[in-house]
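The step that takes the researchers longest sounds almost clerical: writing a folded protein down as plain text. The outcome of that step, for a single protein, is printed below.
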Amino acid sequence: PQSAILGMHAITKRAVVVDDQIVIRPMMYLALSYDHRIIDGKEAVSFLVKIKEAIENPERLLLEV
């Protein structure tokens, strides 16, 4: 049985504010559905944060042991 499903949407360009300036950045939505009977919400959020960090800085995957 599946305890969690990670959905990764397409990368699209979106306008965001950085240092009070509007800039275009690549953005992707992530969605995590999970069984609350098996996985605690805190662990699910920690997992999503690690996925986000890995996508934003893939070189860290090679440097971390």
Remarks:
- Residues 15 and 23 are 6 Å apart (CA to CA).
- Residues 4-63 form one domain.
- The mean pLDDT is 91.
